[in-house]
Amino acid sequence: MTVDLPDDLVRALKIRAAVEGRRLREVIADLIRTGLAQEALRPERPSGRRVSLPLVHCAHPATPDEEMTPERVAEILANDEMETAGLR
Fold it and tell me: pTM score, two decimals?
């Protein structure tokens, strides 16, 4: 089976596998099993109910290197994991 994953996710998975000393496929399989088990434990969501998240207004727009995109958050988290693991 072939799965096309975003580069940042693959990088995070490879880091986790290296830190844990496990094969990439084992890490992925365990994460999927954990996610499926948690999904089974979740109560049914009421239909039509929306959750509002807080909106933060800033004094000035972020520059491209300050903007917190999902990709940048993933990169920061991956770098933090590498530092914690002593790989950096």
Answer: 0.47
